[in-house]
Amino acid sequence: MKPIIAIISGLKRNKEEGVFEGELYSYITQEYVDAVEMCGGIPFLIPLQKKIEDVEKLLDVADGIILPGGNDIDPSFYHEKTRAECGEIFHEVDQLYLWAIELAEKLKKPLLAICKGHQMLNVAYGGTLYQDLHVQKENVIEHSQNQPRHLPFHKIQIKKDSILYDIFSDKTQVNSFHHQAIKDLSEDFEILAKSSDGIIEAVLKKEGNWMLGVQWHPEMMAATDEKMKAIFQLFINRCKKR
Question: Residue 27 pairs with which residues in a beta bridge?
Fold first, then answer.
């Protein structure tokens, strides 16, 4: 049977002038849906929920969970004040992400976390973030590309004998769309990949439930890059084993 994959939705504010200016929409980019379908999963979207018990009822029917990219994370979740460089924050969405991580652990659901999701994994287990790389860290490379989203932008170094090494070997190139990143890594995770400036690009939970986080956007590359698609296939295969 095909595994059912829950994708946590974010919020997006309509910035176009007119009657619906400022309206909030639950959304996810179609590439996440396409990547899940390409790898043999059935995707369904979970919109913003206000009660953890309702989220649990929805996740109970899923075989795996995806935490996608999105807005900046509220620094209050890692006990810091918000810097001016932070972008728009949706506190309720961040809480939903944290609930999804907590419930993934409780319900033993494999979890794939991408970009913001990767950062939130670290926050959920006590880690911290750079609120803005170029302000808070010296000698960083550019991490927000202005070229087409499916194209690789910078190199990463991959840990030998890791699940990503099995896909990419020791190096690969990834796309990049972020200005925040993991700062202090939670002790619950091991590093699987870094960029040349030392930014953590991939992590895996050491014990307990299977949780993989990547800082780049493999969903944007999966349609044209078999190795990026293989990340989703790895995740879907874990979900099938349940």
Answer: 10
Structure tokens that stand for 101 in this block: 């991580």
Q: What are phi and psi of 200, to 5 degrees?
A: -75, 120
Residue 75 is given by DSSP the state G
CA 66 – CA 6 distance, rounded (Å): 6
Domain range annotation of the chain: 4-241
CATH 3.30.2420.10 fits 4-241, yes or no: no
pLDDT digits (tens, 9 = 90+) for 120-133: 999 999 999 999 99
Q: What is the pLDDT of residues 160-209, one digit of tens each?
A: 999 999 999 999 999 999 999 999 999 999 999 999 999 999 999 999 99
- Please check whether residue 226 is in contact with residue 215, taking contact to mean a CB–CB distance below 8 angstroms: no
Classify strands 189-195 and 154-158 as parallel, antiparallel or unpaired. Answer: antiparallel
- Amino acid identity at 115: C
- DSSP, collapsed to helix, strand or coil, labels residue 3 as coil
* Per-position b or e across 191-226, b if 16+ CB within 10 A of its CB: ebbbbeeebbbbbbbeeeebbbbbbbbbbbbbeebe
